[in-house]
Amino acid sequence: MTQASSQNQTLYQQIADELARQITEGIFQPGDKLPSIRKLSQQRSVSIATVQSAYEQLELQHLIESRPQSGFYVRQPVTPSYGGTLSDKSGISRMVSPFGSDSAGNAPSCELPTPDQHTDLSLPTAVSIKQSASEVLRRCQQPELINLGTAIPSPDFLPVKQLQRIMGSLVRKRMDEVVVSVFPPGLEELRNQIAKRMAESGCHVAASEIVITNGCQEALTLCLRAVAQPGDVIAIESPAFVGLLQTIESLGMKALEIPTHPQQGISLEALQLALQQWPVKAVALVPTHNNPLGFTMPDQHRRELLELLKPLNIPVIEDDLFGDLDYSGNRTPAIKAYDEDGLVLYCSSVSKSIASGLRVGWVSGGRYQQQIEFLKSFSSVGTSTLSQMAVAEFMANGGYDRHLRRIQAAYARQVQLMGEAISRWFPEGTTLTRPMGGYILWVGLPGKVDTFQLHHQALEQGIGIMPGKLFSARDHYQNFLRVNCAVPWSEEVEEAVRTLGELARQLPQS
Ligand SMILES: Cc1ncc(COP(=O)(O)O)c(C=O)c1O
Fold first, then answer.
1. Among the three residues 34, 58, 75, which one is the final residue of a domain in this structure?
2. Residues 287 and 248 placed together within one structural domain of the fold
């Protein structure tokens, strides 16, 4: 980023923070009109673009709304109170935790307790969730639903206008390139951008060590195929991301669920025990802003994991899909950053940050790189050339960093609002995770209830949720649900949470 653009970024952020504070302190009341863009740019001696960016940021945070031909107005709050965090003097948009933290900056406090750790060590298990998971995902994506189910951000949070401009220009000016397939490892200009971005999380890989894939899902599939065969055992977190379980199932491998702490990540003690008992071929993890638990595995834990696996020559498949979405804007060093032996296969994509519909992901496969490139060439030949060119351009010149800052702030707020609504409406005894990034909450209902039943009842009320059972190969987490918070906050969403809470209260105990 140039110095000028970073100064500009700070300026718009300062203006957005200041206005946000004035709104939460009541200096601007709901329904008040904000100064016009031109007037504010004159008052502050800043450019029109800077004020526009500040207003866009406040819109994303659902603090203000634009009314056609009239200007910008303060929105009616949709919840009675936001607690203390939002009026924190450090500024709204750089909140570290959606649930606040104590004055010493220790673990965030939250009204609802964190879910318990699942502690029993499982046996390697053949997975059989593929069909039920696909049905749930399909149902949750019906257009008329309030989709709190699939972890796909609403277009309100995506850089739709920028992509429209970039893709329009690519189609007009570079159509001869757009119509030609790019064979693996993929478009060089994109791999260069990704190599630069990976350096921010401590991974110093060359562009030649990256293969472009069709999203992170294909990256994970290629990695599993490169390191294991049908029947082999893959150690995973418990609960685990549904797509990983589906992939393990479709490749005929077995999942070994390792107890996972909701704030620290996979238990290394349990993993060590499991490695002594079972012929584990790889460990597949989402260590940063985990799906569904939300934790970020501490640094020391990452190093110890590698120390444990290195002598055994067991590779780690690291899914870093949510790595860019830390609310503080900081990037946690990836496990790959500590990998001196090519044992870590690093996967990611733009699905959570730019757009899942572009299907652009990547893998840096360490010592398995060649094998992955080879597998990619006969699994799907290539990845859409237009998508690759658009992502490369957006990362290089399209304001990707600014976009990230906006969605980090927006997701922090969404997660806070959702957490508060769940605290208000869900039955006593409900538990809730406390992510520091991403936009997913993992909610535990009290007692022995079945959230698959809740899923069906919620669908009848026009609400999609993901039942917890899909996050395990062994039918754990029946009383859990995963909630996607990347839906613009509105009274309908608040009402949907209230309905879910009521339905949850009425679920029969088994
Ligand atoms: C942790 C995790 N990994 C991978 C994926 C798949 O990502 P993509 O859409 O890029 O294939 C998802 C999608 O929700 C996910 O949550």
1. 75
2. yes
